[in-house]
Amino acid sequence: MLAFLALIAGVVLGLLINPEVPTVLQPYLPIAVVAALDAVFGGIRAKLDRIFDDKQFVVSFISNVLVAALIVYLGDQLGVGGQLSTGVVVVLGVRIFGNVAAIRRHLFRA
Amino acid sequence: MSPPAPHNFGPDFLTSLFRFPLDPGYADAAAARDERGPRRPGVRLALRVTAVLTTLAIGVLLAVAYRKTIEDQPERARARAALVDSIQRLRAQTDEQQAQAARLREQVSRLRDAQLSGSAASELRALEMTAGLTRVQGDGVRIELSDGPDAVDPVTGNRRSGNRVRVDDLHILVNDLWTVGAVAIEVNGQRLTAMSTIRASGEAIQVDAKPVGSPYVITSIGPSDLADDFARTTSAGLMRTLVKLHGMGFRVREVDDLVLSAAPDQALREARRLLPRPTASPQASRRPNAPTPATEASGDG
Predict the structure, then answer these.
(1) Mean pLDDT over residues B246-258, rounded?
(2) CB distance from B52 to chain A under 8 Å?
(3) Measured between beta carbons, which residues in chain B are less than 8 angstroms from residue A55?
(4) Are residues B85 and B140 in the same domain?
(5) Is B45 within a domain?
């Protein structure tokens, strides 16, 4: 519940202060969003599975974002940035889908 | 939930990704908690605060990404609007320059008329009229020619365009008009000159590369007996036959006070140097009205 409120507060805060994203970081924004969504849905599912762990949540979010950004950065340097971003989105997307399916089973027993 | 036993990242990575989408770390952490009991309260609180802050950060991230996407949208719209703007501006500029060219041309012909003696000027005007460079006003003939109905094949249902006006029909009509003394001819509002073309391009007919369609209106100005003379030509006879055979529309009327516009600007095809080759500087050739006889330009362009 607290986490949910924090998420809402974060969205409101982000809309209010509207921080300027440095141009260097802008290409990584979409990837970071997908990584963050993966962490959020993983956390919710773990909560429902009663195995949620704060440390694991924090570590998974940060490592997700960093690894995804690193892969895209490397790809950009090697000229395959678009393809590697697609790969990252596919892997994280599959995880998001699986976790959302598990959440659905938890909530609706179906 | 059954924990995925060993996390091997071999060929089975995708399979395990699909079957166990949850980060295996959660299961490991839960197992560790079961084994060693919960963490100390201080550590737990610190971790909880960190997690909440992380969630806050995720919220900010989502909001920022949303804002960024929304901001990018008008940027695209702005780029488009700027392009549309510049197209319109350039078009207006072209129109203005064309109008200016027309004004200047008029000015040139006025100045030329002032310079030339009366007989020379009238000769020049007659030549210009024949060349299609000036507007012509006078009595003449208007011929209206239109396609006959498309025949529909009773078996296949295909439409056959055999009853349509063909480019040859326009050719002979126009040529016969010239023959019987027309001084100016327009086809669907396009003035013909000696250099004009009437061509078929597929099924379409083009006059000076601009498409024209049925009904074709051929307007011509000429001597007073133009209509009678034209009625006796072979093309007029042929058209009357075609009307009977194919149901084409063909009508010839005498019309008074026709106004035919000047032909659009013709590209300069041939030029001749009026001055001897400049010896000192290029500026020398700009001297106007130098009283020198015309000399052929000798190949230096």
Answers:
(1) 89
(2) yes
(3) 29, 47, 50-51
(4) no
(5) yes
